[in-house]
Structure prediction request, 150 residues.
Amino acid sequence: MSTVMKELKAEISKLARREVHRELSPVKRVNAAQRGLIADLRRQVVALQKEVKGLRKAAPAVDLALPKSGAEAAEGLRFWISGKGVRALRKRLGLTQVQFGRLAGVSSQAVVNWESTPGKIPLRRKETRAKLKGLRALNRRAVKEILKKG
Prediction:
């Protein structure tokens, strides 16, 4: 009887393997197709990343080549000044810190802080940036006239 049991057991396991294979073959096909799609998508992502990288490199060159609009030029978005620059500008115009602050539209303490700042001054307000840019273009005589009027 043991041989019959062994034969029966072998036949059952063979049928079970066939059934499992029959059930899993469509799943394997779908899985293989999805892996192929995933590989294609990865290749597309890599290609798009390379394209974006190239466009980022080209963007600053295009940005500099384009003429600035009037509003952008008036705001002086590319303008910056350092603490030494503020001090030198104030001395060149012959102004005290209080007078310079009045012309720039800030307090005298702000001028003191600017002059003691190493490196670029972080100007938050666009109006202040525009006023400082305008002060650079003035001479002593024009500044004295502005102070007499205002």
The chain is about 80% helix and 0% strand.
